[in-house]
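Lecture 7 notes: from sequence to structure.

We start with a single chain of 449 residues. Read the sequence below before looking at the structure.
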Amino acid sequence: MPVNRITRARVRAASVGLTLAVLAAGAAAGAGPATARPVAAHQAAAGTRQSAAPAADCGAAYRIEQKLTGGTTWRMCWRYDSKAGLVLEHVSYQPKGEPKPVKVLNSARLAQIDVPYDDGSVEYDDLTGFGFAQGLVNLAPGECPGGTIRTVRVPDAVDPAHPDVKGLCTTTRSRGHAYRMQGDSANKVFQTQGKDLLVYTVNQVGWYEYLTEWRFQDDGTVQMNVGATGSLSYDDYDAGDGRGWPIGKGARAYATSHSHNVFWRLDFGLDGSSKAKVEQYDSAVTAPAPGGQAPTNRTTRTAVTKELAGDSKTYGWWRIVSTAGKNADGHARSYEIVPGPSTRYPGRPFTRHDVYFTEYDKCQLFASNNPGCAAGAPRSVDRWVNGQTLTHPVVWMNVGFHHIARDEDQQPMPVHWQGFSIAPRDVTAMNPLTPAELAGQNGHWRPRS
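Now the structure, written as tokens:
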């Protein structure tokens, strides 16, 4: 959206002010806004507790606990940061048959949304520079079907007299087949439909509205996505250098192309320990050997012991490995990083890599324009990769999207998503959704001849 820095801030403030005015008018008329009422702490606890298993380390009002239809329970705490917005902490996963929750993450949060425009006129750091957290908006009941909308106290609220926003949705959603398998006899089909716990907020920055969603699947996978929607700027704007795209009638109005570089920060706590290992896997494909039927593919494992700036590539991936726990088969639990589609932005040093592994530092919270704890400290993630040994690794994921506007972006603008996931690797001995009839088929269930 071609809005300069001053206009962008004013637009957001004006939008929030208008919202507050509407709410005040509704209250005066005796009719509140069309949002769900806040849930009292004791009601929230009664409505979400699913078992007697240990709860996440937080009060009931800040606890999320959901047992999904496949038997998997996710537990976590939430809080709201003055710059990062929603922060999830003490995240654990307990599939059916697992005697106790398996801790996955100490914390998970957005770490920056960097938005440079193609004509070089502006660049926004939405989290630390443009009031992302203060732009939390109220959600209508229809936006959280079958779920609960929780009231969030927004720090440094634009209107200090109205800091509470009904802006956090927790609900469940189907995602289609979790698996399907037809037996050899073709007499029985094993299939189940997957279910997710969805936790999300909507934050307005300028004319954009960001949907920040966290999907916790019943198979242990966690998906992290940011969707950008809202409006293109209502002002006509001509980039004047060929970088704009004509919208509307003829070629009178232009929208400037720009990038969205979204960063996430994940602090793993597998099996309750922050001491984890990072491993990198690379595969090399070679031509078939004489007499061979297919090329050879060999995979090598490299221990990542020092801080690293890495790039996604074909036949390459990373995993975070527990040093404190193993599954029932005796294999170390781990989570694999699964990148989503990305357009890597080469314009800034901190956006030139897809993932960074850094040693934990409580002052390093944002990938760029980091406020930090000490004057003169490096302020971006690329400068924190300086050879330290990794004992408590923190993962910074960067996913880029180059937004070239189109006629279909008006009005309103369809959501464009960017994100990634982390997938369990050896967290359980078998598929956590395995039906009882197949529970004995672990390992080479068909004897080799």
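The mean pLDDT is 86. Keep this in mind for problem set 3.
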